[in-house]
Specification:
Shape: globular
Number of helices: 5
CATH topology of the largest domain: Gyrase A, domain 2
Order of helices and strands: HEEHEEHEEEHEEHEEEE
Helix content: 10-25%
CATH architecture of the largest domain: 2-Layer Sandwich
CATH class of the largest domain: Alpha Beta
Strand order of the largest sheet: 3-9-13-12-11-10
CATH superfamily of the largest domain: Probable tRNA modification gtpase trme, domain 1
Number of domains: 2
Radius of gyration: 17 Å
Strand content: 35-45%
Number of strands: 13
């Protein structure tokens, strides 16, 4: 699979016997030896751990970040509150009202946002956002896809697993889209009560590559 990108967990996937396929320009695991059905049931009954580091991750920061996001996204970024609901589903619209991509916006700290986009649309989204960026001041857009790992822990036992592993900080509870910053195994982890599996209990973890 020449020319395809790999996540930081690629070698681990191979060691565990994963079936690797091309997805959105990345070499990603589609299933492990136990099989898709067993993995599905494990997530529904207990918990499943997913490497979603192939998704695009853009940092938007600066005193002008909110004004920029209000222009390029459909949802109300001003509604994000790091003490309550710090994440929201949103769309990146084009000039005619169509969708360039769907995305998730996170706010873990003041004056800085994390925009997660689909892997297959990352370059297109990047170009679109930069096209509008030139009309704004005091805002910086940074592609951190290669610098931030992203893991999803989903399923009924995910809360228990998180509680057992957090060394400091609080779970983002009790509602969906809550966020927090915690420490796990000595690493700083940005943690969100979000996910795409449909499980009511779900968490997504963002960790700097160096950690």
């Amino acid at each position: 699979m020449s020319g395809l990108k790999r996540t930081i967990f690629y070698d681990r996937h191979v060691a565990l016997g994963a079936k690797i396929v091309e997805f959105g320009g990345w070499e990603m695991p589609i299933f492990y030896p136990a099989g898709i059905l067993e993995e599905h049931l494990a997530t529904r009954k207990k918990a499943g751990l997913f490497d979603v580091s192939h998704m695009g991750r853009f940092i938007v920061k600066g005193t002008g970040a909110l004004k920029f996001l209000q222009h390029v996204l459909t949802n109300n970024a001003e509604a994000l509150n790091i003490r309550e609901t710090g994440a929201q589903y949103t769309l990146i619209p084009n000039e005619t009202g169509g969708a360039v991509d769907d995305a998730y916006l996170y706010r873990f700290v003041e004056d800085e946002y994390l925009l997660v986009v689909n892997a297959s649309n990352r370059e297109k989204d990047w170009e679109h956002l930069n096209l509008h960026l030139k009309n704004f001041q005091d805002v910086e857009l940074i592609d951190k896809t290669s610098d931030i790992a992203m893991i999803a822990l989903q399923g009924p036992m995910s809360r228990y697993i998180m509680k057992e592993n957090i060394e400091s900080g609080q779970l983002p509870e009790p509602i969906r889209n809550a966020v927090s910053i915690v420490t796990i195994s000595g690493a700083t982890v940005k943690l969100a009560r979000t996910g795409y599996t449909g499980e009511p209990l779900c968490f997504e973890l963002f960790i700097d590559r160096d950690d």
